[in-house]
Amino acid sequence: MATPRSDSFHRLRTYIAERMRMSHIYQPLMLMELLGRSSPAPAEDIARRILGEDVTQIDYYTERVKRMVGKVLTGNGITAYGNGTYSLIGADELSDTERDALQQLCRQRLDAFREQRGEEVFAHRSRQRTPISGSIKYRVLTRARGRCECCGAHEHQRALEVDHIVPKNHGGSDDISNLQALCFRCNAGKRDTDSTDFRGLQASYGHREAGCVFCALEGSGRVLLENELALCIADAYPVTEGHSLVIPRRHVADGLALHQPEWNAVTQLLKLRREQLATQDPSISGWNVGVNSGEAAGQTVLHAHWHLIPRRDGDCEQPRGGVRGVIAGRQSY
Fold first, then answer.
1. Which of 145, 255, 259, 314 is 20 to 30 A from 176, comparing alpha carbons?
2. Selection from 125, 203, 139 nearest residue 174 by Cα
3. Does residue 11 register a pLDDT over 80?
């Protein structure tokens, strides 16, 4: 016989299943923490529950393990690293009593350090002695369009932090003009010895050249695929059926001078267009992908662009050598 459900169960079930409107993951996590215990939960315990679901925090400390603590312990012959995992050298020789004693010693060292340093222990996570207000942080992240102003990583890919361009300990102010958005990896790499200003990088993505045929493509109806930083069109003079061009939106002549986020965007569209064409035409059995950089290399439109050329068995007498054919007589070898 089924156990009758309480009024509280029905009230909570109705809220969770039907009434709960979520803009983030916080509500169900708080409820899970409260449901999993018989006593009230301090706010700190609820925060720890949420922290456990935050993959950006896991990513951050994974980087710290690999770049810092893991290197130090392995370099001192205490741990060994292999296949993505760390092991304690000599661990199989330790008794349970010895393990407990060593853990207690670690706890003593940890407590002594925290007593000495206080709140400074995790000051590196805030990157500033005085916390940046939520409204200022919002303005900085909005100005950066939610991307790291160094590597271009989106806030959904990597946690973003508000960085002082001129570090605080070098006299930098909290004024928004001295703030920029950096992902935790770039911010950790920058440290407080560097005052590089990355904010102009974001603005450079909007550069368009008057009179450039590729800069004028946006909204023209020729665009087959696009993302934030690049677009794909069909070549106006195809060498094979399906010949396509992938073009960064920013006007830049040299295809090898792209910012890393643009490389990522171009690569994404090359892959998407290749998948699209391969699905549409099963006769495609190969690809040529290339960029002409400079007039001596045959570039005629001085706006970087990548050629994606589908190849089919028998489409030319001798395909051996592929892109080596840009120099007559050098294709075959």
1. 259
2. 139
3. yes
According to CATH, the topology of domain 127-204 is DNA Binding (I), subunit A (1.10.30)
* The pLDDT value given to residue 285: 96
Domain boundaries, the chain: 25-80, 127-204, 215-318
Q: In the chain, how long is the greatest CA-to-CA distance?
A: 86
Q: What are the DSSP E strand ranges found in 203-305? A: 223-226, 230-234, 244-248, 284-291
DSSP 8-state code for residue 247: E
The conformation of residue 68, written as its DSSP 8-state character, comes to: I
Note the residue count of the chain: 333
CA 208 to chain centre: 26
pTM: 0.50
305 is an active site residue: yes
From the candidates 251, 259, 303, 305, give the one annotated as an active-site residue: 305
Give per-residue pLDDT as tens, 217-268: 988 899 999 987 899 999 999 999 999 999 999 999 999 998 877 888 899 8
Sign of CA dihedral 332, 293, 264, 151: positive
State both tokens at 289.
């992908």
Q: Is 307 left (phi over 0), alpha (psi -120 to 50) or beta?
A: beta
Is 3.40.640.10 the CATH classification of the domain at 215-318? no
Give the residue-averaged pLDDT of 144-153: 83
Structural tokens at position 251: 């006007």
